[in-house]
Amino acid sequence: QSRILLNPLSEISRRIRAIGEHHTDTDCPRLDWRGKDEFAQLATSVNAMLETLSRRSVAIAQVENRQHALIDGLPDALAIFDRAHNLVSVTKEPDGFEPVPGLRAGHSLSRDVFPAKDADAFEAALDKTFETDMISALTLPTTAAAGKAARHFEVRLSRMDDHFTLAILRDVSSEVSEHASRIAAETRLARAQKQESLGVLAAGIAHDVNNVLAVVLNTAEITWMDSKDPDAISALSTIRDAVRRGSAMARELMTFAGETKIVFKRSD
């Protein structure tokens, strides 16, 4: 019995264990068994099974390698959350940026790092992703810390299965900062253009007012220049004072419009 049955079984078991360590190889070793007995048939079946396992293992390894290459090529952070809104793991941190703050395995988003309303919006998006199997997208800012500006993340949520959802976090802090700077620059430009338009308008008004005042003053002086009537002389004085005040206001408008050149000099 030992020679015919037990010894061959032990030898086959030993060889299968040795081959099992190499079943992921492209050229998987075969179970070489000579003869035409039941053990030879068993060896043939084992070889067929090993070939199938080898092909499938190699295919799986190739898919995993492609997935790893794809993940490594992404610049974003990858994190997995469960239905209870808790972080399961961080698969990858963002390239070229500091790690995403406020993420602790086994915990939900930290309210000390993320504003409460934004953390609540993130959890609501998680629930929606689990319920509808749709990809959700939102913006997730952090709270500004001492000496550090707030960071902004674009987040996309994709359901992996009934228990886990993948969160893809992209750091867009620089884009948000550039957008804010661009808006501020556009606001300053619009204000400058508005002020320039007001200056042009003020210059035109001042010029026209000066012309009108000159006509009024010249007409009054010519009309009452040689008059001896006290009332006429008083009226002419009143007109001159009014024209003088009007000219002063016109000069102020010209100064506002930048049409008046002011020269400072020493005076005793």
Helix content: 55-70%
How many DSSP helices? 5
Morphology: rod-shaped
Uncertain residue ranges: none
Q: Going across the biggest sheet, name each strand in turn.
A: 2-1-5-4-3
Measured by DSSP, the beta-strand proportion falls in 5-15%
Count of DSSP E strands? 5
Distance between the termini: 134 Å
Order of helices and strands: HHEEHEEEHH
Task: Give me the secondary-structure category.
Answer: alpha+beta
Strand count, sense and barrel status of the largest sheet are: 5 strands, antiparallel
Overall average pLDDT: 80
Question: What does the radius of gyration come to?
Answer: 44 Å
What are the key terms here?
alpha+beta, 268 residues, five-stranded antiparallel β-sheet, 5 strands
3D structure, described in words:
There is one protein chain. By secondary structure, the chain is an alpha+beta fold. It is built from five helices and five strands, in the order ααββαβββαα. Helix 1 (2-20) runs parallel beside helix 2 (38-73) and helix 4 packs antiparallel against helix 5 (230-256). The model has no long low-confidence stretch (mean pLDDT 80).
Task: Write the topology of this structure.
Elements: H1 2-20, H2 38-73, E1 77-82, E2 87-92, H3 116-132, E3 136-141, E4 152-159, E5 164-171, H4 173-224, H5 230-256
Antiparallel strand pairs: 1-2, 1-5, 3-4, 4-5
Helix pairs in contact: 1-2, 4-5
